[in-house]
Amino acid sequence: MKEKAISRYLEVVKGSEEPRINELGKELQEKIDKAKESLKECSLCERKCRVNRIQGEEGYCGVKNKPVLSTAFRHSGEERFLVPSYTIFFMGCNFHCQYCQNFRISQWKASGRKLSIEELADTIEKSNSCKNVNFVGGDPTPNLPFILEALRKKELEVPVVWNSNFYMSERSMDLLSSTVDIYLSDWKYGNSECGERLSKAPDYWEIIKRNHDLAHHDSELVIRHLVLPNHFECCTKPILEYISQNYREDVIVNIMGQYRPSYRAKQHSDINRPLKRREARRAWNLAEELNLNYTK
């Protein structure tokens, strides 16, 4: 990894700065009220199912009126400057990725545990022995109102990491503003066609670009990109070029070369095999040419 931007991230994750959410005061309660109101006609992600989740109605993600926890633990498998990370995995997701490695969590193939807000707050408090609290899933976006309310109940000692597929609505991006210390995104595709076909996510490219722009202006940003076989020209190249043109060295990019076909990947001829080393190397070489701050 190039080190030009890493020092700023290390300062944040080591806890030398106060978590931003602790500084909000009354504004945090206002965000909670807005987030809970949005559950009446849910529009937390760009699917905007408009279901009344307060009444227990279920939209695309399957999350209703309570957070459902898959697991929470001290995690050492994240980027090296984030570990150990206290990682909270929520059930449910607003994507249906055909190659999802966590499909048992994202697609409700496993059972989770419903939590009260108080129980979620107690779970979050356990993060104070780690470098950060890391909200993930599935995807954390459907649980945003519950997370904000739980964070209100405890004095957080570590930074907040929002680990997401970045399909949030503008409403959710506004709610997240000034609450997140590090956005940890998963930028999958360089166009909307691949997003629709492989993750069932309409209008992927424009939505993901918008949210990365907003996150970049709001806080620190770490972008993950899993290199897919046969997707260099359509996905990897446009993503890395967009990052280079718009964020330059302000962000860290984790270019991951460990793709293995999972879940329903065998049904798609372009992604039905493991990534070849030369394909990953091609992505890393491009990142080097573009002078990105990247890791692998």
What does this protein structure show overall?
This protein has a single domain, classed as TIM Barrel (Alpha-Beta Barrel), CATH 3.20.20. It has 10 helices and 9 strands. The chain has helices spanning 6-13, 26-38, 103-106, 117-125, 144-152, 170-176, 192-199, 204-218, 232-246, 277-289; strands at residues 68-75, 85-90, 113-114, 132-136, 160-164, 182-186, 220-226, 252-256, 293-295. Helix 5 links the parallel strand 4 (132-136) and strand 5. The longest helix is centred in the last third of the chain and has 15 residues, at 204-218. The chain starts with 5 loop residues before the first helix and ends with a strand. The mean pLDDT is 93.
Q: Keyphrases for this structure?
A:
9-stranded mixed beta sheet, alpha/beta, TIM Barrel, about 300 residues
Can you describe this structure in just a few lines?
By secondary structure, the protein is of the alpha/beta class. The chain contains ten helices and nine strands. It starts with 5 loop residues before the first helix and ends with a strand.
Total E-strand runs = 9
Strand arrangement within the widest β-sheet reads 3-1-2-4-5-6-7-8-9
Which CATH architecture? Alpha-Beta Barrel
Order of H and E elements: HHEEHEHEHEHEHHEHEHE
